[in-house]
Specification:
25% strand; 2 domains; 6-stranded antiparallel β-sheet; globular
């Protein structure tokens, strides 16, 4: 099931890829050699004719020597009051899921709310994440399992979890249906953007997701 509309994504991957490649004075063919992807596949992505998988983005990011989040970074002016209309959310595809910003990227305070939508079996990856601040999780639909430190917490619709984000944590959807969850991170260090850690979800699992265009 396609759980998000590709046309709703507000981040233009094709333009961002072209800008990052040209900043490094690399041809498409040169980037293909460095990333292990075909020049044709890269050209199709840059022309906006194909949406790359997370696996492909990680290969390109490694070749460009940048974090994968560089494809999605925006630097909007910070405000003390932020209204985000539903149609204006910053939407970024995860591996078998979707990340949706709820204004934290525009807010001058130390709070980052966002939503994640996860297909059955999707996860944050095999390696745990840690960051400063506190993390609040509210399961809106489906099931969500968080591992925090040495303990596992099973959430169903209506359940909430709050913990210190300095503890190692991972999450996954153990159910057979799509999961939606609201996550709020607050109290983190100034200058840090902890929601980016969640954008790297599925990094290791995605390595086995081979693209048909390669």
């Amino acid at each position: 099931m396609d759980i998000f509309d590709q046309e709703a994504l507000s981040v233009n991957i094709s333009e961002r890829l072209r800008d990052l490649r040209e900043e490094r004075d690399l041809s498409i063919r040169a980037l293909g050699r460095l990333s292990g992807l075909s020049a044709n596949a890269l050209s199709v992505i840059e022309r906006g004719m194909s949406s790359p998988s997370v696996s492909t983005l990680f290969k390109i990011a490694t070749a460009l020597e940048i974090p994968v989040t560089a494809f999605f970074e925006v630097t909007p002016p910070k405000q003390d009051v932020v209204l985000i209309k539903s149609s204006e959310r910053n939407r970024i595809p995860l591996y078998r899921g979707l990340w949706e910003g709820l204004g934290g990227e525009h807010f001058e305070g130390l709070v980052e709310p966002f939503m994640i939508t996860l297909e059955a079996g999707s996860s944050s990856g095999r390696f745990p994440m840690t960051h400063s601040g506190n993390e609040f999780v509210f399961c809106l639909r489906g099931e969500l399992e968080y591992e925090v430190g040495d303990d596992a917490y099973h959430l169903e619709a209506g359940d909430a979890l709050l913990f210190s984000a300095s503890l190692e944590h991972t999450w996954h959807n153990p159910g057979s249906k799509v999961t939606n969850a609201l996550i709020i991170i607050c109290g983190f260090r100034a200058g840090e953007s902890p929601s980016k850690y969640h954008l790297a979800s599925g990094k290791k699992e995605a390595e086995s997701d081979e693209d048909t265009e390669e």
